[in-house]
Amino acid sequence: MPVDATAASAADARVAALAEGTKTAYRMLLQRLTPRDEWNRLPAADKSTLDTLVLGIEIEDEHTSTTRYLAKLTVAFRSGAVTAFLSQSNLPYSVTKAAPALVLPVYQDEGKPVLWADGNPWREAWAALDFTQGLRPLVSPLGDLEDMNAIDAEAAVKGDSGKLLALAQRYGAGEVLVAVATPSATGLDVTLSSYGGDLTLPTLVQSFPGSGPAVMSNAATLIAAQLEEKWKERTLVQGGATASLDVRVRFTNLDGWLAVRRRLAATPAVRAIDLKGLTTQEADASLTYQGSAGELGLALAQSGLTLGPADPASPTAPRDLGLGQNPAGALTPAPAAGTQSPSPPMPAPPTLAPTPAPAGIPAQQSR
Description:
Elements: E1 2-6, H1 10-33, H2 47-53, E2 54-64, E3 68-77, H3 79-88, E4 101-109, E5 112-114, H4 121-127, E6 138-139, H5 145-150, H6 153-158, H7 161-170, E7 175-183, E8 187-195, E9 204-209, H8 212-235, E10 242-250, H9 254-265, E11 270-278, E12 282-290, H10 293-302, E13 305-307, E14 319-323, E15 365-366
Parallel strand pairs: 4-6, 4-7, 10-14
Antiparallel strand pairs: 1-3, 2-3, 3-15, 4-5, 7-8, 8-9, 10-12, 11-12, 13-14
Helix pairs in contact: 4-8
């Protein structure tokens, strides 16, 4: 995050810049974790709060004059302190990060769809923006030769499941969003279709007023914000209440159990793991978690884990838990709201799992 301050001296400017930058990072982090309609209730960033929440500040690229200070800051926050602070403030929040979604921006003018060609201002707008830092990260394709060989504009618009799946795997994405933009007399019409995601998302059609690069950038920014809010709604934790769930993990060797345990520790919703029994082929554990059981299952899926269904005949029996698998078959469009998805979710790849932390939640950073 860039900071820039002017004062009577460079030293005073530095103090002012760091103080203002820390407050800005605090606000950015809380807005990232909470629903938009709660932002007007976010507590002010007073010194006592910041002293409690801020773990440290990394400073890069410093420049000074006699009265001015410029730098880039990375502010790290204490994860457990942040979630406790939000709970104490009676603010709902989400700390579950979705697997990345790959966005394919198709520009359709005069009936001809364009994806990789240089004359695609819609793809250029997405490429110029960074949507990778939120809870619902969106990735733009490189547009290199491998991408061009993987899929063309026509196949993307038609929803060619085989080609979309291959491209998703290249980017480690759990979902592909095909965003088709068509210029209109008043602005830009965008049709957004989701393939392979675990978040129910009907095909969306929206209109954005304006023209030129500005409307493209505005449309991409608003779409990304809408997707982020939908994800937060799905994964919200209300207050600090916790629950427990017994699970059983089956494996062929100890490495299998250790792999599952690492992913559990990296799942923000899981607050504690109590190992009750361990043999050479299975482990019984009790998970302490925040949110509902459904929200826990969704959070585990983002860490590449699959939680089996409860047994109706024995609801207190341990539920099966194991490493997730890519769904068999092709990617299909997400159904209309209220209907069941025809294909299981695509879990986050192992390399995307957060780094485990003692508090159970990875340290949050704002740049």
